[in-house]
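pipeline stage [seq->struct] | target=Sigma factor-like helix-turn-helix DNA-binding protein | organism=Streptomyces luomodiensis | residues=313
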Amino acid sequence: MDHGDVVPIAELLDERRYLLDVAYWMLGNRGEAECVVDETYRRWYGLSDAGREQITAPRSWLAKTAGGICLGRLVLPGRGAGGRAGGRGGGRRTRAADGEGPWAVVEGEVSRALLDALDSVSPAERAAFVLNDVFGMTSGAIADIVGRTEAECAELAHRVRRGLRAQRSLPTTPERHDSLARAVRDACAAEDAALLASLLSPDATAFFDGGGKVRALAGPVHGSRRVAHSLLTLLADRPRTTLATHSVNGRTGLVVRYDRQVAAVISLDIADRHIAQVWVTLNPDKLDAWNHTPETGGSGSGRSPAHRGDGWS
């Protein structure tokens, strides 16, 4: 977005919407999110002409700036563990009052339950998780915003991920978990969106971790139908794409291969006999171990096969 060029209106609105999403996920408050985005643009136009010209990726600069402002607000004295000020209601109206404005869309897509769960984590944990799992920012950008090393940020995000799974997942037998994973595989094989949606909780959430290395979805997908559609879209282009059940971190999950290379690993969290959360790892760095073992490219680090057959191609 060179300051001297005319930018298409669609690009301008998409950029602002993206920044609002970042701020809303970070703070959970629409009023504060709008203030953050306004301050972000003030800082952009506060730069000299030469300073702006040196920024080769304006959107990334804006996102990084917005993230830093949000983190500063999260750590202000008087906030709770999750950093929110003034309780849940501050600055937020109902969707009916919002009409057809952008916030009606944003609040409709963001899982209220997930945002509420993030209230219990520290500001640094929230920032690391949101920027990594929700927006897929690069590890270097996240480290700059949070003020920790890349390894520390990865650990912060992992702790939040583990906590969310503990909150949403209910104890289930290995047999039940295995049965649901197989059912998901079969529904995907049949390209049956209705069947796949029936296996998911109505408020199911899918996360797509591309790590900034592939063009994964920029945010989570909510709702059984939308999650089912996103998974079927991801697994399209058969027969070069194959799917099989496989042990993922000690529980039955799914491994996706494209031309025999592991391209995605999917883990499933179960609550109330349905799948509550779907975690799709697409980051090539995280898949490296899966592609460098004798059997499949991926049974290292405790990821031994749950069973070998029953894939589709």
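stage status: PASS
auto-comment: Residues 242 and 260 are 8 Å apart (CA to CA). Residues 9-27 form the longest helix (19 residues).
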